[in-house]
Design goal:
By secondary structure, this protein is α+β, with helices and mostly antiparallel strands. It contains twelve helices and 13 strands. It has a domain of about 110 residues: 2-Layer Sandwich (GMP Synthetase, Chain A, domain 3), CATH 3.30.300. Strand 9, helix 6 and strand 10 form a beta-alpha-beta unit. Catalyzes the formation of S-adenosylmethionine from methionine and ATP.
């Protein structure tokens, strides 16, 4: 039954509810989050990608769709793998758990005593025939249907949104403090959130200040809450947050639950592919819905998402726009994309529009899966490292999708003028 209020009651309700965030006109807040390698979902991503790397290391043509799940001391690996590699799956799983830092049940899992269940079949012959068949490498089809998103913004040197870039930097620093025993009380599980205040300027916007930062770091029983807060300030926040965005009004929520000793799979179940926003752009630009980890590059959920980031970053790096979202769609067994969409949010360079950017993308990039795999060298065992800290905005040399292609606009204009003259 609907609830109805008299006008005087409605006025009272409105008058007692105050706007919580008082911002200047044209300003807005945006929040991103990230989680550590020890978060149970990220642990599963790391296990799945470690198995993928083990397969690709021996057989670059391995077809892998590997999922993982964990709870308490049980870890399960399941999916479809077709490979000529001889992979000791249980050994790979235990080593991955150890590498993340779970070496004692008090932390949430012990790699030595965990129960490992492996349930892996071969890839469907029908899918393999549709995707590969007898096709040339460049003509292989997409491993499934779906849409993939790429995004880039000029607000950081890495061309990533500032909110998510800071989240990933905080996670990296937390993990460094734990691994190097700068903060020996830290345990593997952690989550962060960063909220930034932005100011609109026409079609564009830019970061003004960090509004608030939230860190939840798993810890041992011996340290006090006040000590945790002090050490997070001195060893983490001061090392990561750009001082030009920090002011006296920046808020810090450090282990707001007070106690966080129970973490990892003991505190929560984990599953591969459940942190897709953490993996990408922190909520900016959209998402196609497909997870990355545990998938070989014939799966366009992964390879085409990398390519879309490459395209988006190339457009921004070439000064053709200030930020942009790229959408690419595929059908199973079909090599050419079914659609390509470019949205620069009105930030395109003077003299261009999104139609021009779309033409530039189609002429400058071949987005067939086989070509993406070849140009970005995606058959290498490089994926376990992506399972923590995001797949984009990285500086490691092996991640070729982060190396933008600077587009020759003069050549493109000359070619377009020639085409128009021939009509």
């Amino acid at each position: 039954m609907a609830t109805h209020y008299r006008l005087d009651e409605q006025h009272h309700l409105l008058s007692t509810h105050k706007t919580k965030f008082q911002l200047p006109k044209g300003h807005f807040l945006f929040t991103s989050e990230s989680v550590s390698a020890g978060h149970p979902d990220k642990l599963c991503d790391f296990i799945s990608d470690s198995i993928l790397d083990a397969c690709l290391d021996q057989d670059p043509n391995s077809k892998v769709a590997c999922e993982s799940a964990c709870k308490n001391s049980l870890v399960m690996v399941f999916g479809e793998i077709t490979t000529n590699a001889q992979v000791p799956y249980e050994t790979i799983v235990r080593e991955a758990i150890k590498n993340v830092g779970y070496d004692n049940i008090s932390k949430g899992l012990d790699y030595k005593n965990a129960s490992i269940i492996v349930s892996l079949d071969q890839q469907s012959r029908e899918i393999n025939q549709a995707v590969v068949g007898a096709k040339h490498e460049d003509e292989i089809g997409a491993g499934d249907q779906g849409l993939m998103i790429g995004y880039a913004s000029d607000e950081t040197p890495e061309l990533m949104p500032l909110t998510h870039h800071l989240c990933n930097k905080l996670i990296a620093r937390l993990q460094e403090c734990r691994e190097k025993e700068i903060c020996p009380w830290m345990r593997p599980d952690a989550k962060v959130q960063v909220t930034v205040e932005y100011k609109r300027d026409g079609a564009t916007f830019f970061p003004v200040r960090i509004h608030n930062v939230l860190i939840s770091q798993q810890h041992d029983e011996k340290i006090t809450h006040s000590e945790i807060q002090a050490e997070l300030h001195s060893h983490v926040l001061k090392h990561v947050l750009p001082q030009q965005y920090v002011d006296e009004h920046t808020q810090y929520h450090l282990n707001p639950s007070k106690a966080f000793t129970v973490g990892g799979p003991y505190g929560d179940a984990g599953l591969t592919g459940r942190k897709i926003i953490v993996d990408t752009y922190g909520g900016w630009g959209g998402h196609g819905g497909g997870a990355f980890s545990g998938k070989d590059p014939t799966k366009v959920d992964r390879s085409a998402a990398y390519a879309a980031r490459w395209v988006a970053k190339s457009l921004v790096a070439s000064k053709l726009c200030k930020r942009v979202m790229i959408q690419v769609a595929y059908g199973i067994g079909i090599s050419e994309p079914l659609s390509i969409s470019v949205n620069s949010y009105g930030t395109h360079a003077e003299g261009y529009d999104d139609d021009d950017l779309s033409e530039i993308v189609q002429e400058s990039f071949d987005l067939r899966p086989g070509v993406i795999i070849r140009e970005l060298q995606l058959r290498r065992p490089i994926y376990a490292k992506t399972a923590s800290g995001g797949h984009f905005g990285r500086t490691e040399s092996e991640f070729l999708w982060e190396k933008p292609r600077i587009i020759d606009i003069v050549a493109w204009k000359a070619n377009k003028e020639q085409q128009q003259q021939q009509k």
